[in-house]
Amino acid sequence: MKAKHFVVATATFVSVIAIAKSATMTVANMVGGHGSHHQKIEVPQGQPIPTVDLVVHQDAKKGWNLEAKVTNFKFAPDKVNTAAEPGEGHAHIYVNGKKLTRLYSSWYYLENLEAGENRVKVTLNANNHADWVSKGKLIEDTEIVKVSQAVKKHQGHR
Q: How far apart are CA 148 and CA 114, in angstroms?
């Protein structure tokens, strides 16, 4: 009898874990599409293909000024969370694979980066947060920013 209760208890426990994991994934996917993987939207045929060129400028005092030079794309912060429209939306900035923020214009000030190599990436996103793609390829640009330990310490002083 004890073995039967153990099997039932174990099966119930495993079911609870599976349900909890499923619920977590569903909620993550439902929260405005901000899970780790965005939906992708192909730029419609006949529409100009947007481009983005990320330029990293070291600030004169500290930090970095990120410039997202775009073509065939209009930043539309007033339309965020609405239906996708070709050629408009916003951008997402990632540092070392982690989403930092949304970008609603071409410039962003980035105060701190870790010592060593940092991958700074910008993606073009539709109003509904989906990633814009062309021929299946994400419309993005990535720059590597190398930060020495001395620069990192110096930036801590105001």
A: 9
CA dist., res. 113 & res. 86, Å (int): 33
- Which uninterrupted H or E stretch holds 23? helix 2-30
Decide if 77 is inside a domain. yes
| Total structural domains within the chain | 2
Per-residue tens of pLDDT for the chain, all 158 residues = 555 554 444 443 433 333 333 332 222 333 333 444 679 999 999 999 999 999 999 999 999 999 999 999 999 999 999 999 999 999 999 999 999 999 999 999 999 999 999 999 999 999 999 999 999 999 999 999 999 875 544 455 44
10 part of a folded domain: yes
Range of the domain at 136: 40-155
Task: Specify if 35 maps to a domain.
Answer: no
Looking at the structure, do residues 19 and 96 belong to the same domain, yes or no? Answer: no
